[in-house]
């Protein structure tokens, strides 16, 4: 989750993993295998990956099949075969070139996933082959097999599904750190969360219920109100047809204690004005910058023009606090691990449970991203690396065609990168629009 540059698929320099700092996005590297699997070395490893080939519309994300020989895992690393991956708003930003921590294209997207460990590197003693784990990285998680630091994997509770495992890390860590580390939510407080039906919104709502007598105001379209109310939102507000500031003031004339703002621009100013004295505003996104498929310079300019601007004197006079949160810039691996284990404990206690909105196979990534972009989801949108059943036969035929001089239909071979240590082949697979 750090901001370091990840090696490309063709370049794999040795890296030193610090125990107290998340490593570079090792997931963006080509998967590797442990020396303890001699049989695996006889057969190249093939896997599917979603690659951002450039900035722009949905067509810039290509489903590719890659094949590579299996070098040794480095010390402290594990090889995970992913069963589910999480889709976050950061990927929508990254597609448009608005996510500053994402390496330049071509790059594999994705920051979280869950799966089964297939190999472990030297020095890994608390993970073993066959373990079901949640895994994290700054990028590179949207692929079938991935290499990550063992320090960024977390054992899954027995009753947790792979889809739930992929839905927890980014959304729930974000929600937990904002509520408990920054805003210091306490009994009797009130919280406003925008996009309350999204992954972070639902995580915030559930975590608020672990503290007695917390009132939750949540903005969402009217069609989602019944669901989020059942989930714990005290006062759902339709931001499309009503002024949410006026609605909140009707219920709570003094305002709220905590505002969590993923929108930016004028909404940040509104959030600050809604705060009670000693209240806290946490800004953690700029969703107002994203309008159409591609980068909208006008929307960006409008958002930043209307952004909240304060002086230290104004803060003193208002007795309010303003914070900024960005999980991608948290470089303290121990802090991330401690938060994840606390969340897994809450899951075991039945106090939190990710809501899965929908699941899409890699071939359907366009549909998945459209669903989130158009604010249709209630909960987490999940991507499944495994091929759809109707696609499986085509992929088998494509694999066989590698040894056949006749070209396979509907499979387009990308350029092969060869160096002194390895040979990698990449095939592009037609994704559904």
Automatic annotation (TrEMBL):
<dbReference type="InterPro" id="IPR011032">
    <property type="entry name" value="GroES-like_sf"/>
</dbReference>
<feature type="compositionally biased region" description="Polar residues">
    <location>
        <begin position="1"/>
        <end position="14"/>
    </location>
</feature>
<dbReference type="InterPro" id="IPR013154">
    <property type="entry name" value="ADH-like_N"/>
</dbReference>
<dbReference type="InterPro" id="IPR052100">
    <property type="entry name" value="SV-ATPase_mito-regulator"/>
</dbReference>
<dbReference type="InterPro" id="IPR036291">
    <property type="entry name" value="NAD(P)-bd_dom_sf"/>
</dbReference>
<feature type="compositionally biased region" description="Basic and acidic residues">
    <location>
        <begin position="410"/>
        <end position="419"/>
    </location>
</feature>
<dbReference type="GO" id="GO:0010637">
    <property type="term" value="P:negative regulation of mitochondrial fusion"/>
</dbReference>
<feature type="domain" description="Enoyl reductase (ER)">
    <location>
        <begin position="56"/>
        <end position="383"/>
    </location>
</feature>
<feature type="region of interest" description="Disordered">
    <location>
        <begin position="1"/>
        <end position="42"/>
    </location>
</feature>
<dbReference type="GO" id="GO:0005741">
    <property type="term" value="C:mitochondrial outer membrane"/>
</dbReference>
<dbReference type="GO" id="GO:0016491">
    <property type="term" value="F:oxidoreductase activity"/>
</dbReference>
<dbReference type="Pfam" id="PF08240">
    <property type="entry name" value="ADH_N"/>
</dbReference>
<feature type="compositionally biased region" description="Low complexity">
    <location>
        <begin position="26"/>
        <end position="39"/>
    </location>
</feature>
<dbReference type="InterPro" id="IPR020843">
    <property type="entry name" value="ER"/>
</dbReference>
<protein>
    <recommendedName>
        <fullName>Enoyl reductase (ER) domain-containing protein</fullName>
    </recommendedName>
</protein>
<dbReference type="Pfam" id="PF13602">
    <property type="entry name" value="ADH_zinc_N_2"/>
</dbReference>
<keyword id="KW-0560">Oxidoreductase</keyword>
<feature type="region of interest" description="Disordered">
    <location>
        <begin position="385"/>
        <end position="433"/>
    </location>
</feature>
């Amino acid at each position: 989750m750090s901001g370091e540059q990840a090696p490309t698929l063709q370049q794999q320099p040795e890296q030193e993993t610090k125990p107290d700092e998340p490593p570079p996005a090792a997931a963006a590297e080509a998967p590797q295998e442990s020396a303890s699997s001699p049989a695996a070395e006889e057969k190249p490893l093939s896997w599917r990956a979603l690659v951002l080939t450039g900035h722009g519309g949905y067509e810039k994300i290509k489903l590719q099949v890659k094949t590579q020989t299996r070098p040794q895992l480095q010390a402290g690393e594990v090889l995970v075969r992913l069963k589910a991956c999480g889709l976050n708003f950061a990927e929508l930003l990254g597609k448009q070139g608005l996510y500053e921590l994402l390496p330049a294209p071509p790059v594999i997207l994705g920051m979280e996933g869950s799966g089964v460990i297939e190999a472990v590197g030297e020095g890994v003693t608390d993970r073993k082959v066959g373990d079901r784990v949640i895994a994290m990285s700054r990028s590179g998680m949207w692929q079938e097999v991935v290499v990550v630091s063992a320090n960024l994997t977390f054992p899954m509770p027995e009753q947790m599904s792979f889809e739930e495992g992929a839905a927890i890390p980014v959304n729930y860590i974000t929600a937990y750190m904002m509520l408990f580390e920054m805003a210091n939510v306490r009994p009797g407080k009130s919280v406003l969360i925008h996009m309350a039906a999204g992954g972070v919104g639902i995580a915030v709502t559930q975590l608020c219920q672990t503290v007695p007598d917390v009132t939750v105001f949540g903005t969402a379209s009217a069609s989602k109100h019944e669901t989020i109310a059942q989930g714990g939102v005290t006062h759902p507000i339709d931001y499309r047809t009503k002024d949410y500031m006026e609605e909140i003031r009707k219920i709570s004339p003094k305002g709220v204690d905590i505002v969590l703002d993923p929108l930016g621009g004028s909404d940040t100013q509104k959030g600050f004005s809604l705060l009670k004295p000693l209240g806290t505003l946490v800004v953690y996104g700029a969703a107002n910058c994203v309008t159409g498929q591609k980068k909208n310079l006008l929307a960006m300019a409008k958002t930043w023009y209307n952004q909240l601007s304060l002086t230290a004197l104004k803060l003193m006079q208002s007795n309010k606090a303003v914070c900024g949160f960005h999980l991608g810039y948290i470089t303290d691996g121990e802090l991330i691990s401690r938060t994840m284990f606390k969340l897994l404990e809450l899951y075991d206690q039945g106090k939190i449970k990710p809501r899965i909105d929908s699941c899409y196979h890699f071939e359907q990534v366009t549909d998945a991203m459209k669903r989130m972009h158009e604010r249709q989801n209630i909960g987490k949108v999940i991507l499944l690396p495994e091929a759809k059943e109707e696609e499986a036969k085509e992929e088998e035929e494509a694999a066989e065609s590698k040894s056949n001089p006749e070209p396979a239909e509907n499979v387009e071979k990308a350029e092969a990168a060869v160096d002194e240590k390895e040979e990698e082949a990449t095939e592009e697979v037609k994704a559904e629009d």
